[in-house]
Specification:
binds glutamine
């Protein structure tokens, strides 16, 4: 097993996750099986209780793990499926050590950060690195470990110390450290400044780790003299200084790193048994990057949500939209709308805001209402759904978005004026969305229906079934406490709202589709979590196709994306990732 530890210096939020995932992508393109572990030094056990306002989206895994959104980067870049244990937090480590202590496993010894916590970290990493993350079930050969935060943070000290020891335990040829740093270029002088990098490398060295590659994040390519300076002051060869300047799209990052000889460096440093010539899989990344730079036609989607001020709050949703837009050769324009701005109270208090929000909604070609929690803004979402339904605008509702579409239909088509979810009005006489029985009230965290669950398609004519490649069922990820009230199913279906997909028992409504509408779909699951750059998620793909006016012709041509190669529900565990990805074709739409 080869371990690559990625640390960060100077400030966080400079793309360490993207760089780490890109390194993995390059190595995977060499035919290696690559896994990843993300370490978050906070004390929370997992990201389940985080507010999207503060931390961005909570990413959900197959096994129901609620994890940091960076794990989404790894899954998307590497096309792998991770488990909760791939996200390690201080909370998890302490919990495991304290549990052992209570069981008496330490035989009366004093339990300390060194060696007990540091040992537990090393054991966790070694154990988790071996867990297969690919469909073929092969044990990984490379494990990328990303340490969150920046070197020198109090919280990350036990982790740094654990890896300081670890490098000797696993031997030099099996461990290396990549340090991601920032080279600011202040406007005043226009010079690229190396001092912050020098200090953070010094700090890292002081803690006993030496960087093998220094990845310099900068706005422009590094000048030669700057590279030489970093090399001299940071005690590395100039070839070990890698420039990661701003690029037009994230798809360029693996290419940028490859261009600077990262593969041959790893081959030599880690003694990897692979060729160093460019890989076919990377050519796919080049194709995506070029395609993304050349896009001329635009398609605009209104994202009617609640956390529209923080871009990270809907990361996977945006990625899923981007994957789909790219597949049909369109440039995506997302119009963020705070759903509360669509409500009549805003008209009274801030009319300009109200009209702007409605203008954005009306001028977009498709409407997406994503998942969410809490009452604020739900009425505005219902208004947006109502508009999309009546105007025959493509609409996709995800999780809460689907639940509210059911409320809208009940109120305005079935005439049940007070229809609502009991999450927002427990007194409603028409509780069309109700709490699920297994929800465990009173305890926060881990009390939802989480992770991969099966949805069975009930009708041959379902547009979702077609988009998923005419399969009988799909496995998608969930995160909810409420569900559509199954008792009212017949009332909806009689009036044209079909429950096209249900769980195995036929009790849980998973997919809604409206008859006589260009595209009006709701899904109880979160398909965005499994969307991949070259395997766009079907519900999102359908929305984009419909918004670009291409859905009918796509369906008429028998959906050109090959279902066998594309979606998890029907993949038969293909062999080499290189071949699998290369054989995939984007649907060619005229
Ligand atoms: N609040 C809703 C529920 O708990 C929807 C959750 C979501 O959109 N993720 O069921």
């Amino acid at each position: 097993m080869k371990y690559i530890l990625v640390t960060g210096g100077v400030i966080s939020g400079i793309g360490k996750g993207i760089i780490a995932s890109s390194l993995g992508t390059i190595l995977k393109s060499c035919g290696l099986h690559v896994t990843s572990i993300k370490i978050d030094p906070y004390i929370n056990i997992d990201a389940g209780t985080f507010s999207p306002y503060e931390h961005g989206e909570v990413f959900v895994l197959d096994d129901g793990g609620e994890v940091d959104l960076d794990l989404g980067n790894y899954e998307r870049f590497l096309d792998i499926r991770l488990t909760k244990e791939n996200n390690l937090t201080t909370g998890k480590i302490y919990q495991s050590v304290i549990n052992k202590e209570r069981k008496g496993d330490y035989l009366g010894k004093t339990v300390q950060v060194v060696p007990h916590i540091t040992d537990a970290i090393q054991e966790w990493v070694m154990k988790q690195a071996r867990v297969s993350v690919d469909d073929d079930g092969v044990e990984p050969e490379v494990c990328i470990i990303e340490l969150g935060g920046t070197v020198g943070d109090i919280e990350s000290m036990p982790f740094i110390e654990a890896f300081r020891q670890f490098q000797f335990k696993v031997k030099k040829e099996n461990f290396c450290n990549i340090h991601v740093s920032l080279i600011p270029q202040p406007n005043t002088t226009g010079e690229q400044k190396t001092k912050p990098t020098q200090s953070s490398v010094r700090e890292l060295r002081g803690l006993g780790l030496s960087p093998d590659l220094i990845m310099c994040r900068c706005s422009m390519p590094l000048e030669r003299a700057v590279k030489e300076k970093i090399s001299m002051f940071c005690h590395v060869e100039p070839t070990q200084v890698i420039c990661v300047q701003d690029v037009s799209t994230v798809y360029r990052v693996p290419l940028l790193l490859e261009d600077q000889g990262v593969v041959s460096y790893f081959c030599q440093r880690l003694n990897l048994p692979v060729e160093t010539s460019p890989r076919r899989m990377l050519s796919k990344w080049k194709e995506m990057a070029d395609r993304s730079d050349r896009l001329l036609e635009r398609v605009s989607i209104a994202l009617v949500g609640k956390y529209t001020k923080l871009a990270d709050a809907y990361t996977s949703v945006i990625k899923a939209l981007e994957h789909s837009a790219l597949a049909i050769n369109h440039k995506l324009e997302v119009k963020y709308i705070d759903s509360a701005d669509l409500e009549p109270v805003t008209l009274q208090e801030e009319p300009v805001k109200y009209h702007e929000a409605w203008h954005k909604l009306c001028s977009s070609e498709g409407v997406l209402v994503p998942g969410g929690f809490g009452t604020r803004g739900t009425e505005g979402k219902i208004l947006a759904i109502n508009w999309a339904r009546k105007q025959n605008k493509p609409f996709l509702g995800v999780c809460l978005g689907m639940q509210l579409a059911v409320c809208e239909f009940a109120r305005n088509v079935l005439g049940w004026e007070d229809a609502n979810s009991t999450e927002f009005n427990p007194e409603s006489k028409h509780p069309v969305v109700i709490e699920m029985p297994e929800h465990n009230p009173g305890q926060m965290g881990g009390t939802m229906r989480l992770g991969k669950r099966r949805t069975i398609f009930r009708s041959k004519n379902s547009v979702m079934k077609k988009l998923y490649g005419n399969v009988d069922y799909v496995d998608e990820r969930h995160r909810h406490r409420f569900e559509v009230n199954p008792e009212m199913k017949a009332d909806f279906e009689k009036n044209g709202l079909q429950f096209a997909g249900q769980d195995v028992e036929g009790e849980r409504m998973e997919i809604i589709e409206l008859e006589d509408h260009c595209y009006f779909v709701g899904v109880q699951f979160h398909p965005e979590f499994t969307s991949r750059p070259i395997k766009p998620s079907p519900p999102y793909f359908g929305l984009l196709l419909a918004a670009a006016g291409k859905l009918q012709s796509y369906l008429a041509k028998g959906c050109q994306l090959s279902p066998r190669d594309t979606y998890s529900c029907c993949s038969s565990g293909d062999s080499s990732p290189d071949v699998e990805i290369c054989e995939l074709k984007f649907p060619s739409l005229s």
